[in-house]
Design brief:
Layout lengths: L4 H13 L7 E5 L4 H17 L2 E8 L6 H15 L3 E5 L7 H19 L3 E3 L4 H14 L3 H4 L5 E3 L14 E3 L7 H10 L16 H16 L4 H30 E3 L5 E4 H5 L3 H16 L5 H10 L15 E6 L2 E6 L2
Parallel strand pairs: 1-2, 1-4, 2-3, 4-6
Antiparallel strand pairs: 5-6, 7-8, 8-10, 9-10
């Protein structure tokens, strides 16, 4: 093993943040690209210091004609590294980036549960974090969207993943590295990168952000924009964790699910709280009943009823849910 500064920095980070404790059973998501190969090589090299158990999973979305060759490339590396590996192949080709992400995390969860893994790791970098912050800012997702790609979270919180896997941690150990640094590491250690042709497809919004928007911002506004956006994500993540913990406590205090499955909200208590807390409680309630992430207008519709006169009601939400004012409560019930 050729010990490098990247090895030393990751070792220090793992000790500081306790991202991957000793004796962890780790499933590495490996696409074959430079970031995931850098991650795999680093963890393999650091394995003796932590006594980890390592394995590899590759997700084939079937987006490219060479996707099966890509999977074979990853399997060949796994054999060379003497690690168990599995390839998950999509039965139906995902129709969007969001659908691909949902399918991918679902398969990661399935394999991790089946193989008794305690942690799933991905090769997301500082560059990925910056791109996702920009993407979410453009979409108008608010502070939660800025607080993107945290270092560690429950795998059960990921899109499309059963909460049965909530004890498995999703970890991103490379968030301090830029894409340029992972490329340099792979070159230094002669890692055979699989070049993904879909990364050049500008119909994919993230590719356009990566290849056009970020370079423009670097040239004309801030050469260190990736680091600045990644730091913004880190700061926002801490703020979001605190706000969510306070909102969860308030949710328990001011909401009650009745015997008929309707929800009752203590209007006076919720109305007395800051608007930020009101919105988070309402969003949490709508997530319970809609089973999807509510949009801004749906949340504001319920916020408006906190001050509305008795008898006021909303137009229907998806699934036939209607909110009505029955002083001193705001009642959300399903009709039809």
């Amino acid at each position: 093993m050729a010990w490098s500064l990247t090895h030393a920095n990751l070792l220090a980070l793992l000790k500081q943040k306790i991202l991957l404790p000793k004796d962890s059973h780790i499933l590495m998501a490996v696409s074959g690209g430079q970031d995931s190969l850098c991650l795999a090589r680093l963890l393999i090299d650091l394995k003796p210091k932590w006594q980890w158990t390592l394995a590899i999973v590759h997700c084939d979305h079937r987006w490219r004609e060479d996707s099966s060759d890509n999977a074979d490339h990853v399997l060949a590396l796994a054999r060379q590294w003497q690690l168990p590996a599995w390839v998950e192949v999509a039965e139906d080709v995902p129709g969007s980036e969001a659908a691909a992400r949902e399918w991918r995390y679902g398969r990661l969860a399935t394999v991790a549960q089946r193989e008794g893994c305690t942690h799933v790791v991905t090769g997301h970098t500082e560059s990925d974090r910056a791109e996702t912050v920009l993407y979410n800012l453009i979409r108008g997702t608010g502070i939660d969207g800025i607080a993107t790609l945290p270092w560690v979270r429950s795998l059960g919180d990921s899109v499309g993943v059963s909460l049965d896997c909530c004890d498995i941690k999703l970890v991103r150990p490379l968030l301090n590295l830029s894409r340029g640094e992972t490329a340099a590491f792979c070159q230094e250690h002669q890692l055979p990168i699989w070049e993904d042709s879909s990364n050049q497809n500008l119909k994919l919004r993230r590719n356009r952000i990566r290849q056009e928007l970020l370079p423009y911002v670097k040239e004309h506004f801030n050469p260190q924009v990736e680091k600045a956006l990644a730091q913004m994500a880190d700061i926002s993540a801490a703020d979001t964790d605190y706000l969510n913990s306070q909102a969860a406590q308030l949710f328990r205090q001011c909401t009650l699910q009745a015997a008929d499955a309707s929800w009752e909200i203590d209007r006076q208590l919720l109305r007395s709280q800051p608007l930020a807390m009101q919105r988070r409680v309402i969003r949490r309630l709508l997530q319970e009943v809609l089973r999807t992430s509510p949009n801004f207008s749906q949340i504001e519709k319920l916020i408006g009823l906190l001050e509305a006169p008795n008898g006021s009601q909303s137009d229907p939400f998806p699934g036939g849910w209607i909110a009505s004012v029955r002083k001193p409560l705001l009642v959300l019930r399903q009709i039809g």
